[in-house]
Amino acid sequence: MALAAQGFARPRPAVVGTRQLNLALARMATLQIDSVNVFARSHYLPLFSRLGPYDPALLERLLFARRGPYTEYWAHVASFIPTADWGLFAFRHEDLQVRYGQRADRWFHAHRGVVDDVRAQLAARGPLRPAQIEHAAKTAPTGAWWDWDVVKRSLEYLWLFGEVAVAGRRGFERRYGLVADVIPDAARVPVPRADAIRELVARAAAAYGVATATDLADYWRIADRAAVLQAVSDLVDAGTLEPVAVEGWERAGRALPAWRHRDATLPRRVEAATVLTPFDPLVWFRDRAERLFDFEYRIEIYTPANKRRYGYYSLPVLVGDDVVGRVDLKADRAGSTLLVQSAWWEHGRPGHAADRLAEVLRSAARWQGLERVSIGRWGDAADDVAAALGAAFRHDRPAVAEPVAATVEV
Questions:
Q1: How many CA atoms, within 13 angstroms, populate the side-chain half-sphere of residue 362?
Q2: Which of 174, 159, 147, 167 is nearest to 100 (CA)?
Q3: What number of H helices and E strands is found in the chain?
């Protein structure tokens, strides 16, 4: 049911166009953004996982168009949402304003002069990239780097508070505009807090199929557990949710309360075979991934290289209705090669897992415009996958692994 709710039980379309992308985005309800680009940036991957190879330019036209159908906000974390949903997050605008904007000891209050100047330039000049915003600090001894920081931080706070919206991107750099210049009037109407949380919980339940209250809260990172539980109660009364018990979902010897969305269906079979980004809704909440698949998952980009167990940016491998392994992928653009830096099996993999994974890797390479796949020698699945590929290309584990990632604002 969880896989079907996320679209993994559907046959892949012969051709992926805008309609198919919109339908997949609607099932997920939100698309998390991440800047790591060792294979492909995270927000491109969930569509590949569900639909197969597609033209990334189609997705970019949907996501980055000025006054387009999608915009960005702190929904799960930094995420794309339908532009029409902006008003659903009015309660979050208010909460973040209280948290960061009203206390005298916070950065925003201490830099009101910069913030007011940034706001005034957006009003006078329309949407701008941070580098286009002029400020007197650019001539100060502290230099341009300090100026970039204060301008960018001002824009980010105004975005969190709902005063500014993202008006598109140039490459991966955001353009910011006053919300009235970016979000249509109808979408800016604030939805009352209780109504918004109830609607978001209902959407999370539809996207998950079956979920606990913690799952539902995490989908939108709603910290107010009492509000989530009230929303669940209201949705049960309305017939949208049904209380259920899930075998194995327990804590401290007690069953975890769970609910099934009324539209959740049990598919006859799930024949998916794909890789998942670490930020796919199917696995982004690690506690849920462990309950669903007995799959313990942590990304290791922030782990020192000599302490990594699976690799820099390992991706879960879904075959059928189970997560059966993980692969650490890297796109070598100069060499036109998809590098499988490591490959590992999970327990209970089916006998044809290597063949299915080989198909996925070929498809992933084609999607990224790469001519070949090279399999590394690290991991208990590496030789199996190389054999299934008939791989003429093998490579050793890099002598110098990727550095620990720095934190990057997206």
A1: 12
A2: 159
A3: 15, 15
Q: What is each CA distance from 290 to 286, 347, 402, in whole angstroms?
A: 6, 13, 27
Residue 407 pLDDT = 35
- 200: buried, middle or exposed (CB in 10 Å: 19+, 13-18, 0-12)? buried
Give the C-alpha separation, 87 to 64, whole Å. Answer: 20
> What span, in angstroms and rounded, lies between the C-alpha atoms of 96 and 371?
47
CB atoms within 10 A of CB 391: 18
Distance, CA of 225 to CA of 231 (rounded, Å): 10
What is the pLDDT averaged over residues 90-108?
A: 89
Could you tell me whether strands 337-345 and 322-332 are parallel, antiparallel, or unpaired per DSSP bridges? antiparallel
Q: Place 408 in a pLDDT band, splitting at 50, 70 and 90.
A: very low
Tokens 């390992």 belong to 314
To the nearest 10°, report the CA torsion of 7, 13, 19, 25: 20
Largest CA distance in the chain: 67
Q: Exposed (0-12), middle (13-18) or buried (19+): which is 116, by Cβ within 10 Å?
A: exposed
- Mean pLDDT of all residues in 258-267: 97
Asked whether the beta carbons of 148 and 165 are under 8 A apart, the reply is: no
Q: Quickly tell me which residue has 């706001």 as its tokens.
A: 119
Q: Is the pLDDT of residue 141 over 90?
A: no
pLDDT band for 224, please (50, 70, 90 cuts). Answer: very high
CB 273 within 8 A of CB 316: no
Residues 210, 264 contacting (CB under 8 angstroms): yes
Q: What percent of the chain has pLDDT over 90?
A: 82
Tell me how far apart the alpha carbons of residues 176 and 156 are, in angstroms, rounded to a whole number. 9
